[in-house]
Design brief:
83 residues, mainly beta, SH3 type barrels, two-stranded antiparallel ribbon, 0% helix, globular
């Protein structure tokens, strides 16, 4: 599956520097997809990725940039409980 096949508003899991985080497809601009990523502190930031970026499916959960040697469930970012 490719990132371009997801619709706007679709949720997925992406790899950040510190760990894995939730993200949502927010828009398509110039043959790239803009993802809104949730930060553990409650803020958000944007990532731009190619439409042809590969997505792995873990059951019904789309995972972008999946490295099979790392289990994303073990290194998932802890979100602030206030949010």
């Amino acid at each position: 599956m490719r990132l371009g096949q997801l619709g706007i508003g679709s949720r997925l899991v992406v790899r950040s520097r510190a760990g894995w985080r939730f993200a949502a497809v927010s828009k398509i601009v110039d043959e790239r997809i803009v993802l809104t990523v949730c930060s553990p502190t409650g803020r958000t930031y944007r990532l731009r990725r190619d439409l042809n970026s590969e997505i792995s499916m873990e059951g019904t959960i789309p995972v972008l940039g999946y490295d099979e040697t790392e289990d994303w469930r073990l290194n998932f970012c802890q979100y602030d409980v206030r949010w």
